[in-house]
Amino acid sequence: MQYQEGKIGRVFAIRFDHNEDLILNLKELIINEAVQAGMVFFLGALEEGKLVVGPEKACVPPIPVWTSFTDGREVLGIGTIFWDTEAPNIHIHFSAGRGKEILLGCLRKEAKVYLVIEAFLIEVTDLRVQKQYFDEIGISMLRFEGEEEEKGN
Q1: Could you check whether the bond before residue 61 is cis, i.e. omega within 30 degrees of 0?
Q2: Which domains does the chain have, with CATH numbers?
Q3: Which of 120, 124, 125, 138 could form a disulfide with 37 if both were Cys (CB 3.0 to 4.6 A apart)?
Q4: CA end-to-end span of the chain, whole Å?
Q5: What is the pTM of this model?
């Protein structure tokens, strides 16, 4: 286990409007406000979305199972925000329900808002951490400053 202590920075209340792309607009806000790390919490509805709902089997590296919806669903989600070398890396897990059907997974790619999404973005400061892709396991994970040196000790 690796960890660092940070501090709560700014808090943004956000409204994403009908037909906006949740992920693209969130990324734009993160870049414009220079948020280096944080958490996002949201609720509302998406008209359509594309998500990963698990691996095909529990192996390393994982082979993702994709699904999508285009029928408008109530959603509730939480995500982390860190940067890789060039851009914000947003990792969102969420549930999307319609009637008795509920999807739970990692929201990626399409995320078209239906009516409205309300969100809070909570900035975390004083961290020395980035997202990095690790070939050996096939996913992006946090890499803490000095982690390489610590492994060598």
Answers
A1: yes
A2: 8-50+68-127 (3.30.1330.80)
A3: 124
A4: 15
A5: 0.90
